[in-house]
Amino acid sequence: MEGFFQFSQILWQLVSNPTNLLVVFVASLLGIGFGALPGLTATLGVALLTTLTYGFDVSTALLALLGLYVGAIYGGSYPSILINIPGTAAAAASALDGYPMSQRGEGAKALGLITSASAIGTFIGLLMLVFIAPFIASVALQFTSFEFFLLALFGILISGTLTGEGGAVKGWIMGMLGLFLATIGRDSLQFFPRFTFDQPALDSGLDIVAVLIGAYGIPQVIKVLSDTSEVKSKASASFDSMKQGFASVYVGVLEAFKYIKHVVRSALIGVGIGAVPGVGEDIAGWVSYSAAKKGSKNPETFGKGNAEGLVSAETANNACVGGAMIPLLTLGIPGSAPAAMLLGALILHGVNPGPTLTTERPDFLLEITAIMMLATFAMFINGTILAQRVAKLLTVPATLFMPLVAVLCVLGSYALGLNVFNIYVMLPFGILAYCLIEMKFPISPLVIGFILGPMADESLRRALLVTEGSLFPLLQRPLAIVLLLIIVVMVLSQVPLINRMFKKKKVVF
Amino acid sequence: MKHTSPYKQHLASLAAFVGLALGILFFRHTVIDGADEFPSRPISHVVVWSAGGGTDIANRVVSAEMAKLLGQTVNVTNRPGGVAGSLGMSYVSQRPADGYTWVGISESCVTAGVMGGWQERMDIWYPMIIGGSPSVISVSSESSINSLTDLIAQAKQRTINAAAGGSGSIHHLNLLAFERGVDAPFKFVPFPGSAPAQIAAVTQEVHVVITTLAEQQQLISAGKLKPLAMLNESEYAFSENLIIPSAFVDFPSLSEHLPVFQSIGMAISDDAPDEVKALLSEAFTQALQTPTVKTWADNNYFSLSGRTGDAAKEEFARLESLFTWTLNDMGVTKISPEALAIARPDASE
């Protein structure tokens, strides 16, 4: 009770300063922009703001940084829903159901849904951070190389089973292709150059942003521009939705509470995954989406505009923010890439996150909580207002703004690191992705495979180095066995024969 | 309204054009001759390691103070990747040598050449050394190993896995020097940085970890890591109840191989104008004296060096020779240090 009183006092101090409110709202808006634009990421945004906010005091700087972080994870879903091009890897799972919804004329509602879902997700993440942080941190520290490998493998396989009409096998083929692409460059254990063909530009591997934009952006541009029938149907559907009024954003905002069961489950998944060091928002969306689909009474509606799927993916990636803060504040270990940036920013401001934090600055956890709450609030308000404006974009035929998206794709891949080589990677890769999609190969598992590839590759090889080539120690670790069992069951459930045997009894997970 | 003749219109536009041209000329003139007004535009500071790491934080803290002293914005970005920071260093070395692009480096960067990251040596830089944190060898707090003598005795009987950052990092070199000093073998398990290496020691995936005290302090305070010894000649009073002994007490032969000290710093191109170098050195020296930097160093188990100019160049040359030849003797170099004209370390080193 005393803690709550103290908390309200801190919150009041923050709110009563108009500069703080301005900072958090602007940062949140900036974050949504960073998330929505291909090529700009939450990590980059936090890094840029770190130096810009150096002159501010700690709480104002943190308002800016957390406001941007929360906003960016949310904003990545805008293009997912509107044009089927995720702004960040974290928002890829949101496109699966978000885009079909907007094609059905429910784009405004979808935007409303994700606004609520993201806000509640962040908020639940926050509650976990306050109440059970030490417990979660200790579980997250059970992860050794074997577990990291299995988690990465799980992420790749699960995204393979979820996407596409081609079935799980096609998804897995793409996942393996992604793994292969991830091996390009010097390997991080021994610096051995793999598939670099003596090209220095390939030494550090393919750039993740270039691959992301190529995989999602280019195929969608080609697809929309080559589809002549799209113009009429899409535009008319959107006009219908406009007639229903932009009130549908609010409908969406409120409707999210109908899915509260999914929201809570997804938030818990998000927090758990966010807390594991080095694993972040991108995988959380997929795991949560799969949990929603497996638990659903009608899994066949997923991928065709099921709001449950959208809400689940979107809640989890935002809950990750709170999760990533847990090891950061309790042990000084960042849980995700943007959290690593935050660690730098905190130390820069003389805050030393870790176990000594509670003795050095007893109020700090409450302060962070208040700051994150304000950041969530700013994201929610910004999101609700912005969603209405953005929903109008849907009334513009996609064919008209796709050329602009194409330019943004080129700019986005060049902007990160001002590297022309990234454009050379992005364009051919985009064309390859288009061909693969036409052949009914889902593209998301490839991207997830590429993102998680280094973790899978490195962790497995390191684990085998420690055990001198033996896989048996894996079976002595309870967490590894659990992960392994989940993977085995998931793979078996895709085999038609076994699937039929279990058809009568519903397999849950 | 009076009608203007076409002739007058032409004249007006001609005058405007000439004015504009003169303006541009004048502007360029001031920019080119404006070296005495350095810095007249924001400075870009490229750290070659990722954000939140030791090099990154030290650079951010110091360059923020320098920004205040110089009265100019310093934008810190990270450009990790390549070999031993080669991507970031190549990038900065290709920028104009005008002092507007700084590079944030650490001692590990001296290996970029021999590891095939780039074709340069460290002598292309004008370095300024912030300092470093001393190295410490630790085990998990749940480990049965309780002292350095314990550890060495066990290492002589069974395989002891040691984490020490990535291959060719300062921690790896400390491990190699340590192995030679105590005459016992360890199995090096590479991790992509200090943080994952330390977590691996906490989870007991590996038996021991060598990183810096700054990197381990939170895990030591949390009771997750048990420090065994400092890898230099002096003990360290970590807290009232915890004094970390020097490894040199039980193993005096270590003094022949250690310490290999961290040298985190920043640099500009050595081709930059002398007055720019002097100005930045001055700002750097002053920045290290500020209470902000001093408090930060104390709180973070960091000892400040402050060497600039020739002294800093000498230190980097010494590290370059030490690192590259050690790696060469390990047989992991892509290009021999000889090919880059790097001298072997003196026998006394």
N to C succession of SSEs of chain B: HEHEHEEEHEHEHEHEEEHEHHEH
Mean pLDDT of chain B: 85
Overall mean pLDDT of chain A stands at 83
What is the number of strand segments of chain B?
13
Q: How many domain regions of chain B?
A: 2
**CATH C-level class of the largest domain in chain B:** Alpha Beta
Number of helices of chain B: 11
Residue runs with pLDDT of under 50 for 5 or more positions of chain B: 28-35
Structural overview:
Chain B: It comes from Agaribacter marinus. Chain B: This is Tripartite-type tricarboxylate transporter, receptor component TctC. Chain B: InterPro entries: BUG, Bug_dom1. Chain B: Belongs to the UPF0065 (bug) family. The complex is a heterodimer of chains A (509) and B (349). Helices cover 73% and strands 1% of the residues of chain A. Chain A contains 23 helices and two strands. In chain A, a hairpin with a 6-residue loop joins strand 1 and strand 2. Chain A starts with a helix and ends in a 7-residue tail after the last helix. The longest helix of chain B is centred in the N-terminal third of the chain and has 27 residues. The interface between A and B is large, with 43 and 56 residues.
Summarize the topology.
The complex is a heterodimer of chains A (509) and B (349).
Chain A: H1 2-15, H2 18-36, H3 42-52, H4 58-75, H5 77-83, H6 92-103, H7 107-140, H8 145-162, H9 167-182, E1 185-186, E2 193-194, H10 208-226, H11 230-243, H12 247-255, H13 260-275, H14 281-295, H15 307-331, H16 337-348, H17 357-360, H18 364-391, H19 398-415, H20 420-438, H21 444-466, H22 478-492, H23 496-502
Antiparallel strand pairs in A: 1-2
Helix pairs in contact in A: 1-18, 2-4, 2-18, 3-4, 3-16, 4-15, 4-16, 4-18, 5-6, 5-7, 6-7, 6-15, 7-12, 7-13, 7-15, 7-18, 8-9, 8-14, 8-21, 8-22, 9-21, 10-19, 10-20, 10-21, 12-18, 13-14, 13-15, 14-15
Chain B: H1 6-32, E1 43-47, H2 54-70, E2 74-78, H3 86-93, E3 101-105, E4 125-132, E5 135-140, H4 148-155, E6 161-163, H5 170-182, E7 187-189, H6 194-202, E8 208-212, H7 213-221, E9 225-230, E10 236-237, E11 243-244, H8 247-250, E12 264-269, H9 274-289, H10 291-299, E13 303-304, H11 309-330
Parallel strand pairs in B: 1-2, 1-3, 6-7, 6-8
Antiparallel strand pairs in B: 3-12, 4-12, 4-13, 5-8, 5-9, 10-11
